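Progress note, sequence design subtask.
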């Protein structure tokens, strides 16, 4: 497996386009299209929020179809827009399908941006022909920019991997800097591969990998109405199986973990990306919920922001997480520095701990010594800038 320089444009079998539509703001890319050269299997994971956007409804309805493309817009979420919002999504995807010579229900749809505002159908419809005419492999470089909202940098990566049937690639891009919390994929994330994967294998591997990567990150504990992750794989009579599928799974994990770190690093107002690893939990559920509570604790996250060596907040969050363990057997380390062992603090140099917490990236490891299960979340700190960004978002 190897990380390559570039992103979506490196994967054969797909074309892309991104244009300025003026959906909410002028002079920015805000409408884009991912198009597969032939029918693709799609695996789709969506938000668990009961309030979900029209594009989420459409993706859920079409995820088992043979897919030819994904129509995406930024700056407007098309969420809380009722029947009109859904009808707009249906019409725009039908027009997109017509533009590439595909079936109407072979186009998925994703939106991101402000909630509660109708998507301007006439404005977008007038640009569909320009969008489909601009399709090319090279324009894959533009997709990460076109899907940004409060992101400060585009996010993308591509990895190659070897199989008995040759070399294949997986590339991914995502947007997300706020409203990032576990319970789906917590963002918009689009992946493409030229590896032929059967639909049932794709669904299983994608779901399991999502759960360990982009569904194991948190910036502010706030879930969106539009969270959607999609991967496309070409339909084939000769799909990967056995050992080759294992190589695909390893590569997909590498891609989505890479994207996850990019997302947390670019969290709204974030200055740090921290791994919260819980080991020795009694059950897999305990490992995940203990890691999650620590990762989402505002007191823990503000301590990270202030480079405050207040490790007691980590112990406290583990204690109220609901995980079953004996506090007298718990240990805590920051990177390789153990500061709490078997329920008691160790002698350590406070300045050494501060030097760890001042780093942009570090790991907190909590050993519960109650079993054999582990889980890791990625989290950011919470800063003053986070409040400023979200206090002014709709204006």
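Output:
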């Amino acid at each position: 497996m190897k990380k390559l320089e570039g992103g979506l444009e490196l994967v054969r079998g797909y074309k892309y386009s991104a244009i300025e539509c003026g959906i909410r703001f002028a002079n920015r890319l805000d409408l884009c299209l991912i198009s597969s050269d032939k029918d693709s299997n799609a695996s789709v994971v969506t938000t668990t929020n009961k309030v979900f956007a029209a594009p989420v409804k459409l993706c859920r309805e079409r995820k088992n179809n043979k897919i030819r493309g994904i129509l995406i817009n930024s700056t407007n979420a098309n969420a809380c827009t009722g029947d009109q919002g859904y009808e707009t999504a249906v019409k725009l995807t039908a027009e997109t399908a017509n533009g590439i010579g595909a079936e109407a229900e072979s186009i998925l749809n994703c939106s991101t941006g402000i909630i509660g505002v109708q998507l301007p159908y006439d404005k977008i419809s007038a640009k569909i022909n320009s969008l489909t005419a601009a399709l090319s492999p090279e324009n894959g470089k533009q997709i990460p920019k076109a899907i940004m909202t409060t992101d400060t940098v585009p996010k993308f990566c591509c990895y190659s991997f070897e199989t008995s049937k040759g070399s294949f690639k997986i590339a991914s891009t995502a947007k997300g800097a706020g409203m990032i919390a576990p319970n789906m994929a917590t963002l918009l994330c689009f992946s493409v591969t030229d590896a032929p994967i059967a639909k049932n294998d794709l669904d299983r591997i994608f779901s399991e990998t999502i759960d360990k990567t982009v569904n194991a990150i948190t910036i502010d504990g706030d879930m969106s109405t539009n969270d959607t992750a999609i991967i496309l794989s070409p339909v084939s009579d000769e799909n990967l199986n056995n050992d080759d599928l294992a190589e695909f799974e390893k590569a997909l994990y590498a891609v989505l973990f890479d994207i996850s770190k990019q997302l947390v690093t670019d969290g709204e107002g974030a200055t740090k990306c921290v791994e919260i690893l819980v080991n020795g939990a009694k059950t897999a559920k305990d490992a995940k919920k203990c890691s999650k509570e620590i990762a989402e604790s505002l007191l823990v996250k503000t301590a990270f922001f202030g480079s405050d060596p207040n490790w007691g907040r980590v112990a406290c969050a583990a204690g109220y997480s609901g995980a079953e363990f004996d506090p007298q057997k718990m240990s805590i380390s920051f990177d390789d520095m153990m500061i709490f062992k078997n329920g008691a603090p160790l002698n350590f140099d406070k300045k050494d701990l501060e030097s760890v917490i001042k780093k942009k990236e570090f790991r907190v490891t909590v050993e519960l010594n109650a079993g054999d299960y582990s889980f890791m979340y990625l989290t950011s700190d919470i800063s003053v800038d986070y409040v400023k960004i979200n206090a002014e978002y709709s204006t």
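The chain has twelve helices and 16 strands. Work on this subtask will continue into the next period as scheduled.
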